[in-house]
Specification:
About 50% of the residues lie in helices and about 20% in strands. The protein has about 350 residues and is α/β, with parallel strands linked by helices. It has 2 domains: about 200 residues, D-Maltodextrin-Binding Protein, domain 2 (3-Layer(aba) Sandwich); about 90 residues, 3-Layer(aba) Sandwich (D-Maltodextrin-Binding Protein, domain 2). Helix 2 crosses helix 10, helix 2 packs across helix 11 and helix 11 crosses helix 12.
Length: about 350
């Protein structure tokens, strides 16, 4: 009896140990599986932009699954007002933003801790100066009354044109207004010239003798859009920045191979007609992998470093910012280089 009881106790102990071992193993495996699931979970963040064809390939990347492919889940947010998207990035309401280099130089200099990770596009004929028939060279702008928006990249473009042609802002009279209002006022004969974009470049001919004096294609690497990210997000999620860059590269390649389908995707996302997107895209040069490698190469000419430095000097001269910017904090070519491998 005692032997039977002892044997029973022994068997129960063995069974308990075996079950505990099995349970412990399952717990460890479960924990391991959870860790793997956590690691594979896409990184979510908010990326804002205004309505512009240059940002359209983001929607190609979303539609074609390139974001999923690289483990990211960016929520694309349209914000039209610069003060709002600048404030949203500064406060951390969004983690990334598509915007022009010269404006982000201002925001960085005023305290937004951000870093440029990749270039999206540049204006290649979509922006310009329209002028009356008597003005045939940039030098002829001296003494002219010109409409432009000082709170937009039009101002930086105009200052760049003046500097290259030996003129100063004081040589002209500026009337501040939006690019659309400037184009309309010019066509109505109320201005000698205007800084605007399409469709006003084409519409300039509606005024007798009206013409495009210069356009952005003649001033490459001046109006360039980049994706900039908050530095705290980058520090915690460097792989997400690389993934976003890879997804962008694939979206540009897809668009180049399938422009009609690409235009359709972008038009639907941005609430425009496909024909409108196609027309807008004619004045834009997209930056794919090769263009980004060149633009983020410190040893090359006409790089993002030189553009940002030039913008910083302009804004210092105008008293808009007070200190020279730290280019190594504002720009990081790591993500482009990693994504291109």
């Amino acid at each position: 009896m005692k032997k039977s009881f002892a044997l029973l106790v022994t068997l129960l102990m063995i069974l308990t140990v075996a079950l505990t071992g099995c349970g412990g193993g399952q717990k460890e495996e479960s924990k391991e599986g959870a860790n793997k699931a956590s690691e594979s979970k896409p990184v979510s963040f908010k990326l804002a932009h205004a309505t512009w064809v240059g940002y359209g390939p983001l929607y190609i990347a979303k539609e074609k699954g390139f974001f999923d492919k690289y483990g990211i889940h960016p929520e694309l947010v349209v914000i039209e007002d610069e003060s709002q998207y600048a404030g949203a990035l500064a406060s951390g309401q969004i983690q990334a933003l598509g915007n022009v280099v010269d404006r982000e130089v201002i925001h960085f200099a005023k305290g937004t801790e951000e870093t440029f990770i990749l270039a999206m596009d540049e204006s290649a004929g979509g922006d310009g100066i329209i002028a009356k028939k008597e003005i045939t060279t940039v030098a002829d702008l001296k003494g002219a009354t010109i409409g432009l928006d000082k709170s937009s990249t039009s101002y930086f473009f105009f200052l760049s044109v003046l500097e290259k042609n030996g003129l100063k802002e004081a040589d002209v009279t500026i009337q501040e207004m939006s690019a659309g209002d400037a184009g309309a006022a010019f066509v109505a004969g109320k201005l000698d010239a205007a800084i605007s974009w399409e469709p006003w470049l084409t519409n300039s001919s509606q005024r007798e003798g009206g013409h495009v004096l210069v356009n952005s294609k003649e001033y490459p690497h001046t109006i360039v859009d980049v994706i900039t990210m908050r530095q705290d997000f980058l520090k915690e999620n460097p792989a997400a920045a690389v993934g976003l860059t890879k997804a962008w590269f694939e979206a540009i390649e897809f668009y180049r191979q399938n422009p009609d389908e690409g235009n359709e995707i972008m038009a639907k996302a941005l609430g425009l007609k496909k024909e409108e997107i196609a027309d807008m895209a004619k004045g834009v040069a997209f930056f794919g992998k090769e263009e980004n490698l060149a633009f983020f190469n410190k040893e090359s000419d006409n790089t993002v470093y030189q553009l940002a430095e030039r913008a910083g000097k302009f804004w210092q001269q105008k008293g808009i910012i007070t200190e020279q910017i730290n280019l190594d904090q504002l720009i990081d070519n790591t993500y482009v280089n990693e994504a291109a491998k």
